[in-house]
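We treat protein structure as text, and this decision shapes the records that our systems exchange. Below, we set out a record of this kind in full and without editing:

***
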Amino acid sequence: MTSKVESARLAASGRFAQSRAAADLELASGNIAALQTLGVLALHEGRAGDAVQLLRRACREGGAEVRPSWFQNLAAVQAKLAAWDEMLQTTQAGLFHFPDDAALLRQSARAQYERRDLAAAAARYQDAVRSGGELTGQDLLRWAEAIYEVEGAEVAVDKLQDWLQERPDFAEGHTLLADILDEHGHATDTAKHRQLAHACRPDDDGLAEQLAYALWQAGDAQGFYAIVESLIAKQTASRQLHSFYLATLLHHDGMDAGGIRNAHEQWAARFAPSARDNLPLDRNPGRRLRIGYLGIEFHQNQSYYFLAHLLRYRDAAQYEIFIYDLAGVCDYASLECEGLADHWRRMRHASDDELVDTIRRDQLDILVDTSGHYSNGRTALFSRGLAPLQVRIPNYPSTLGMSCFDAILADRWVCPEGTENQYSERKVLRVAGGYMAYNPRPDAPPPGPLPMLRNGFATFGMFQRIQKMTSPCWDAIAAVLRSAPTSKLLIHTASSDLMNPESFERELYARALGDRGIDATERLVFAPPEPMPGHLRAVAQCDVALDTFPYNGQTTTCECLWMGVPVVSLHGDYHVSRIGNWVLDRAGFGEWCAKDVDEYVRVATSLVQDVTKLAALRETMRDKVARSLLTDGPRIAQDTEACYRQLWQDFCNEQQGEHVDAAAS
């Protein structure tokens, strides 16, 4: 029996045949317009090449009979074929005859846009509107992008906002506007337009994910968690969003070590079930080892200053180093890393399978993950068993919940005896001097004199992103400010919204202090975001820095110490909340890490009560840090390689034991 679909197709074929026969007769009698009919029929029958030839012939031979629609039809077919040069020629020919035709102007703008002649495209879209043309949503998006590239973000934002006044339900318009705002660091307005886009299509999980990211960047943690946990419950959250969610849990004051481990293990169960292979290897415990580092950190960024020592001070006779660079950034830091490594693999644009094949071909002995759940990492691939031994450096300061890792490098500061069960990795290897070293920036300015000496009051500093500033943390900050009633609080972060008095971020700061009886207008001071070394000069404007908890600062704490600024931290119960102590104690200032909030307040206020002592400390702190374990790159590199060697020797011995047992049986 013939299906309904097949019957419809046969009926259409019959109608097309009749229409084609009639058009052939019309053409034979000299009616050039019949070429248009034949061209449209050819297109319906899937003969795009024939359609172009017929429609082009009609436009060329039509003479006085030619109509705008003839050029429009030909241009439309050329658009389907992505023949943008030919489409531009067609629309230009049509506009020669019909210079004010809005549809041809719009099509010409599309062709210019696709050819990336964006200035011409923007002008043509403007001409189309002046001619009374109605632009589609896609046309508006292309026009906005062209304006953005040619005239800049401010003009494009104004144009998009005008359009959205007339078309508030235009989800794609809100999305593009949010993209532009996000690119320029306007977190509050980005979140607003992500919210409006999602409201247009509430069932679109892709828009929900974009909104979640925007809410987090704007400081709305509650809104972020509501969306993401709903997507996770539906199992529609992407691997990337779920990873990002895990990273945010490190900020959550309601989490504990068990909760963090469980959340990471749930991610691993869904996205990275372990399926390790038995890889061939030379089981010689003393031979030169092939070590690979996989991550996004090997360029100028915060993490680079904690990993560079592993390359600078490695024992080249004992270790052959491979870098699998996922960032693809070329700068002085990446060039240094590339020069220090034996092999540099550019893998940013590689697919997962290409990356896996490359690593396996290199026949590593140990592969080290440096990125964890940070953006653009490929941690899930370790579940495939990419090397005989797989190790983590917790630059991402937590367990990953993945048992496919043979070991995590830690130390006595972040993993005291008895806390090994906080990690899912098979073994905790404690690096004697600490699992990473801080490599200070060579362009850091001098600390300068103590600000209290010129200000006459104490300035406390907060340099962590707003997402780290939990309610208990604000309680402690407010208590410090009450204990030093003439003091001020300097806020300095990388957020562009920081200097906007109307931003959601500024509102959060004011509300957090106001709810605790502190007048934000009198006590808060803001320093604008600055690239290096301006950022370090901003840090030096405070007398004492206050650390966040439970997510302690790492880079910012090291930078403060390097600029002669004491940091008060709070010791917690799991890895990320022990980072403050990890930095301070190794630098020689462990007394500044408090055991509870009361001690946190006492340490902070006592530091600013003795101006003479604080000023003297500022003058000597950099030298003390430079001579401390915190910055002893050669020592830390040597201790780390000792862990690699011990892990390898244990592995070889275990393999040899299994071989003997198998032979005996």
